[in-house]
Design brief:
The protein is an alpha/beta fold. The protein has 22 helices and 31 strands.
């Protein structure tokens, strides 16, 4: 999230796309309601279902699942063709004027950019990005066209790329009526002027696609064109589905990064620390500080064992081997016998993972499985699942009972990046332990075993500094917080923030972004709870927001070149000429602001160019998506229609094809699975349902698996509300036999058929919370979903697939 929850009150137009904010993020509605009540803000809901957000929205925009880029591309085209963009902002704060390599091009038949070539290892396409670069002069400076008329400037390339995304074409692709498209485009683009703020909220209905990262890029382009980045009430705001998902990603839960969103080292490309830093550190702007953050991280990892002579222990840091190690391929490796063990921490992939019924069988190949959770879930008890014979399963299963969130203390980072301390409300029952205690004891035992017995690269474990016990021999959480915050190695004193980190081994820091959140042992910022009584509602003394307690990132862009706020009624920061420094309601996001330097450039300090990217390049490890410099409409892997914009295009060509004969590809298969399906969450159940399906009152409120279908669809099927349905997908077709899931029919007007390129198509909606364990059991919607993912993140395409529905 670039902004924060409270900041929604400053929005003039709010677009909720790919998320049901009223139902799944109810606190957001408090601030949306305040904006609507106090300043007449408008709410747009873009969703396949007429959900609870749509029910209170000023404008509902129905859309076919998997066509967000078509919708957003149409919005981009509308903004450009009608000159609704914020001209001064676009000229000075984006790369609109930057000239791109003359060899760059895009094939409108195949949907491929320059540099496409086969990638046999991934069974997909990959790009050489050498033509996706800027033109430079003899001194290496980027060539620009301030008039924005050169055909090779980013602005003109953007206009050309989206010229096909006319309202008529978008309507044919998305199923959205033309008049509704026009209303939504006109309303949202009205924020492209000084003094107005447009806010885009999104959730998994944007990310869970084979083009999910590009969906987010499309949102960012819209906000850059309209001047909505860095301002109060604006931004690109990811609404998280759990209270600490933000914290999990910050701390590098994902395999391709290390803490603080630094890229994970790669074998071959980064054999030494010097190689890694040379290849991933730009010369300009904030990531030029990467050496300080990496060396401080290595000192936190390896302590006294990390010295300048041995590259601060970099040789012990695991390196990526060129393979994808995310959820989808992990289970493929399991199927192929390449993964022997699995540790599942608060995760239930046999319900929450794609193609989950197939994965049930893959787990039989494990030698051991550890489940750390508050209940016995489907993944831990896979041997009890449908079709499983325990006598044929040799997997040894360990279940470690864990404490619930309110039974342990520690900080959580919410959607707005606020790192808030949570105090323990009660003791956990029985032998249940906090995650931190479990991980601490597990690592100490592993380190002792490696020291005694050796193993494959034992130094990765034995050389790690691990001293988090208190005097009583139990985990001391303050020691962990000190290390995350960062300290000086010579005397153990805490650094104030990441500005104090060094690259000479004199500082240690577990995550540079969090530096400052626990810099005072007596009164750490993360524990502060002081409400703001005036101002913009940023509450700077309530917890700590990374980075540097900044509540709106890129806030330099909230002012014009002279430092005057675009919106004087909601000023974030401004240049005070009398004081000769930046002041305001937030921490200035400006290099040198702390030394009172005036800056007219570089509002987007995390990019080497210092400006927002309309055209996205790959540059020294910073940014650059694998599947193109512009978001491009590709159909979902399961699609009922060909690509109407690019006739020869497949689904995202760079998306890795993990399984053969896995997705719907032929006309015969489209007739067998004619309906468009999507999945979503409920208020009454949470994630895989392993906790909520064991609560009697919640089970009573939402007792069993169901599927929403329209009244027209029900009439065609001869189905009434409450009848049992059989739902099939290609993932359940095996050896000539068609498998299925069962779900109660919920016949509703919330879902309506969509007219897709002149053909009426039915949409089916399903929650994904059910499984075969707990008080309430049922089939999982994810038995049907495909194991295909985004090429940048490998997040599965849960939100758009094809199915067949019939009466049981």
């Amino acid at each position: 999230m670039t902004n924060h929850w409270n900041d929604y009150q400053h929005s003039d137009v709010i677009m909720a796309i790919g998320g049901n904010t009223a139902e799944n993020h109810p606190i957001s509605m408090k601030w949306i309601g305040r904006a609507r009540g106090r300043k007449g803000a408008k709410l747009i809901c873009v969703d396949p279902r007429y959900n609870r957000t749509a029910a209170v929205a000023d404008l509902y925009v129905p859309i076919r699942p998997g066509t967000n880029i078509a919708y957003l591309g149409g919005l981009i085209n509308y903004i450009l063709q009608n000159e609704r963009y914020h001209k001064e902002y676009v000229e000075h704060y984006t790369n609109a004027s930057f000239l791109v390599n003359e060899n760059f091009s895009f094939d409108e038949n195949t949907g491929l950019f320059t540099g496409a070539e086969p990638d046999p290892v991934r069974n997909a396409t990959k790009y050489s990005m050498q033509d996706w670069q800027y033109q430079t002069d003899a001194q290496g400076n980027i060539r620009k066209d301030p008039a924005l008329t050169d055909p090779n400037c980013s602005f003109q390339l953007l206009k050309k790329h989206y010229s096909r995304y006319t309202i008529d074409n978008v309507s044919r692709i998305t199923g959205t009526p033309i008049d509704v498209l026009e209303q939504s485009y006109s309303l949202y683009s009205s924020t492209g002027q000084a003094g107005k703020a447009g806010n885009i909220l999104y959730a998994m209905g944007i990310t869970q696609f084979t083009h999910g990262a590009q969906n987010v890029r499309a949102v960012a382009i819209v906000q850059l064109l309209l001047g909505n980045m860095g301002i109060a009430g604006g931004g690109v705001n990811a609404q998280r589905g759990q209270s600490n998902v933000q914290g999990a990603t910050d701390m590098a839960m994902l395999y391709h990064i290390i803490p603080g969103y630094n890229p994970c080292p790669q074998q071959g490309a980064h054999p030494t620390l010097a190689d890694y830093l040379a290849r991933t550190t730009p010369q300009k702007n904030w990531w030029s500080n990467r050496p300080k953050y990496i060396v401080s991280l290595l000192k936190a990892f390896y302590g006294a064992n990390a010295t300048a002579a041995n590259g601060f222990g970099y040789q012990w840091l695991p390196k990526l081997d060129g393979l994808d190690h995310s959820h989808i391929p992990a289970y493929k490796y399991m199927r192929d016998g390449e993964v022997e063990g699995l540790i599942c921490v608060a995760d239930n992939p046999l319900v929450g993972g794609s193609s989950s019924r197939a994965k049930l069988g893959y787990q039989k190949n494990l030698k051991w499985l550890v489940s750390i959770d508050v209940v016995e879930n489907e993944t831990a008890s896979f041997w009890k699942g449908p079709g499983m014979n325990p006598a044929e399963i040799d997997t040894e299963v360990f279940i470690l009972p864990a404490a619930f969130s309110y039974e342990r203390e520690g900080e959580k980072a919410n959607s707005g990046r606020w790192i808030q301390w949570m105090w323990k409300a009660q003791e956990p029952p029985g032998n249940a332990k906090a995650d931190l205690w479990i991980v601490n004891e597990m690592f100490k035992k592993l380190q002792t075993l490696y020291q005694a017995e050796g193993g494959t690269v034992p130094e990765q474990i034995t050389m790690m500094s691990w001293d988090y016990d208190g005097p009583d021999g139990q985990i001391d959480i303050v020691k962990v917080c000190r290390e995350i915050n960062g300290y000086r190695v010579n005397d153990g004193s805490l650094v104030t923030n990441f500005v104090g980190l060094q690259d000479d081994g004199s500082t240690a820091c577990g995550n540079w972004l969090y530096s400052g959140y626990y810099n005072n042992l007596e009164s750490p910022a993360t524990k502060k709870r002081i409400r703001e009584t005036e101002g913009l509602g940023f509450h700077k003394d309530w917890s700590f927001a990374w980075p540097l307690n900044r509540r709106i990132v890129y806030n330099r862009a909230s002012c014009d070149l002279q430092g005057k706020p675009w919106n004087p009624d909601a000023p974030v920061i401004w240049w005070d000429a009398a004081q000769g420094r930046w002041v305001g309601n937030d921490v200035p996001d400006i290099p040198g602001a702390w030394s009172f330097e005036y800056s007219t450039e570089n509002p987007f300090i995390m990019l080497p160019e210092g400006v927002g990217r309309l055209f996205s390049i790959g540059y020294q490890g910073i940014g650059g998506l694998l599947d193109g410099p512009f978001p491009t409409h590709y159909e979902p892997a399961d699609s009922p229609v060909p690509n109407l914009l690019y006739p020869q295009a497949t689904y995202n060509p760079v998306s890795q094809r993990f399984y053969e004969d896995h997705t719907v590809e032929t006309d015969e298969e489209r007739q067998r699975y004619p309906h468009i399906a999507t999945s979503y969450r409920l208020v009454e159940h949470y994630q895989s349902g392993s906790v909520t399906r064991n609560q009697p009152w919640l089970v009573e409120m939402m007792p069993e698996m169901f599927a929403e279908i329209s009244e027209e669809h029900a009439e065609e099927l001869g189905v009434k509300n409450g009848d049992m349905l059989i739902i099939e997908s290609k993932r359940l077709y095996k050896d000539g036999e068609q498998g299925h899931i069962r779900a109660r029919a919920c016949v509703t007007r919330r879902i309506q058929p969509l007219m897709i390129d002149g053909v009426r198509r039915h949409v089916v909606g399903m929650p994904f919370h059910w499984g075969f364990m707990g008080m309430s059991t049922g089939d999982s919607a994810n038995d049907l979903t495909p194991s295909v993912g985004d090429p940048n993140t490998t997040i599965p395409e849960y939100k758009a697939f094809l199915c067949n529905v019939r009466r049981a």
